[in-house]
Amino acid sequence: MHRHVRDLELAESRGFYFDAKKAWAAIEFGRCCNLFEGEWAGKPIQLRPEQKFIVWSLVGWRQKSDGLRRFRQAQIECARKWGKSSFAAYLACLFLFFDDPIEHGAQLYIAATKQDQAKIVWNAALKMIQQSPALRKLAKITESRLLIELPKYDSSLRPIASDSKTVDGFNPHVVIKDEEHAWREMHRGLADTLASGFGARSQPITITITTYGDDDSLIWIENHDYSVRCLESVIDGNIINDSWFAFICALDYQDKDSQPVECFGCKGQHCPWCAGAGVLPIDDPYDEKVWRKANPGIGSGKGFTPKIERMREAAQIASQRADKESEFFQKNLNIRVAAKNKIITPEVWARSSGVLSDLTGVKGYGGIDLGRANDFASVAMVFPFHEVDDDNQPFIRYEAITKTWTVEDRLPEMSKPFIEKWIRDGHLIEHRGNAVDFMMIEDAIMEWHRDYVIGDWAYDRTYSHQLAQRLTAEGVEMFVFGQSHKFYTEPINEFLKILGQFRTVNGEKVPLFKHDGNPCTAWQAGNLIVDRNNRGESMPDKSNSNNKIDTMVALLMAFSECLYHQDSEEWKFSSGSLAL
Question: Which among 155, 237, 435, 514 counts the fewest CB atoms within 10 Å?
Answer without folding.
Answer: 237
